[in-house]
Amino acid sequence: MRRFERVPPALWIGVALFVICWIEVPRFGSASNLANVSRVASILLLAALGQTVVIIVRGIDFSIGSAVALFSVISVMTAPHYGMACAFAIATLAVLAVGLVNGVFVGVLQAPPFLVTLGSMIAVHGLCGAMVGGVPLDSPADIDFSGLVQASCLGLPVPLWMAVGGFATIGIALRFTRFGRECFALGSNDTAARLAGIPVRYRVVSAYLLNALLVAAAGAILTSRLGSGQPNLYPGMPFEAIAACAIGGVPLSGGKGGAIHALIGVLILTIVVNALVLLNLPTLVQNMLLGVVIVGAVLGRQRQMDGRRVGVAAIG
């Protein structure tokens, strides 16, 4: 029984949703649809994993949607001159620069993460629009960006392997390394962490840099899928990533969470969105129902946490 108690409650919700959709939603269980779900989930999972690390250290990042747009624009602009591989590397450095700025302002200068990353989101979005004149930039005819999303390994698409690699990396880093222990300590009590000798400022900066690296990987997948530089690429990514973390059981107050929680939240969110699309519901209705699911999942998580506090208090 104790083993089942350790399983995140959101996992059972995800399993139930999957079974219901498999039975009730037409075409949900088809191989082509499940492949599409995996492709969408792989992009969101990379973003949610990075957001999880940032949330654990009591941060937040609203700039990741603009960051993937920056990756897209820079890679398409530089590819004709340096080749696709080098263009992706340059775009990754640009996204890391955004993460570094966020980390320095939040960790070193002690600025509120909400305001810092919101400002970054607006500034980078404006930069992307200025770089391409506000319109999408088509890739050159002699450069094929689709190689990344079309490639496969052991029968599975490369983007899925990238998501698996990100999941394993974050899972191991948070659970078995000094980096993870310090992140949890910082998120639980930054004053105590500082007194314990943990380099709090450096750890916050490193969390934002790791988040930026995962966002760059998501940007590479999106750019490969679209084959063009999009200044408005995936503006809802930060909100979906944060929602996935909350649904999976990562408290926004920091100090708790893990890769498995991000994965569960992403799967629940992706399954719900895919089912609503397959049911051909109007977009407005889809948004309303999705909002209800998110709020309901977060409230359920909060009630569970409150119940545990009451139980601990009663025992005490």
Automatic annotation (TrEMBL):
<protein>
    <submittedName>
        <fullName>ABC transporter permease</fullName>
    </submittedName>
</protein>
<keyword id="KW-0997">Cell inner membrane</keyword>
<feature type="transmembrane region" description="Helical">
    <location>
        <begin position="259"/>
        <end position="278"/>
    </location>
</feature>
<dbReference type="InterPro" id="IPR001851">
    <property type="entry name" value="ABC_transp_permease"/>
</dbReference>
<feature type="transmembrane region" description="Helical">
    <location>
        <begin position="7"/>
        <end position="25"/>
    </location>
</feature>
<feature type="transmembrane region" description="Helical">
    <location>
        <begin position="88"/>
        <end position="108"/>
    </location>
</feature>
<keyword id="KW-0813">Transport</keyword>
<dbReference type="GO" id="GO:0005886">
    <property type="term" value="C:plasma membrane"/>
</dbReference>
<dbReference type="GO" id="GO:0022857">
    <property type="term" value="F:transmembrane transporter activity"/>
</dbReference>
<dbReference type="Pfam" id="PF02653">
    <property type="entry name" value="BPD_transp_2"/>
</dbReference>
<feature type="transmembrane region" description="Helical">
    <location>
        <begin position="64"/>
        <end position="82"/>
    </location>
</feature>
<feature type="transmembrane region" description="Helical">
    <location>
        <begin position="37"/>
        <end position="57"/>
    </location>
</feature>
<feature type="transmembrane region" description="Helical">
    <location>
        <begin position="284"/>
        <end position="300"/>
    </location>
</feature>
<feature type="transmembrane region" description="Helical">
    <location>
        <begin position="233"/>
        <end position="252"/>
    </location>
</feature>
<feature type="transmembrane region" description="Helical">
    <location>
        <begin position="115"/>
        <end position="137"/>
    </location>
</feature>
<keyword id="KW-1133">Transmembrane helix</keyword>
<feature type="transmembrane region" description="Helical">
    <location>
        <begin position="208"/>
        <end position="227"/>
    </location>
</feature>
<keyword id="KW-1003">Cell membrane</keyword>
<feature type="transmembrane region" description="Helical">
    <location>
        <begin position="149"/>
        <end position="174"/>
    </location>
</feature>
<keyword id="KW-0472">Membrane</keyword>
<keyword id="KW-0812">Transmembrane</keyword>
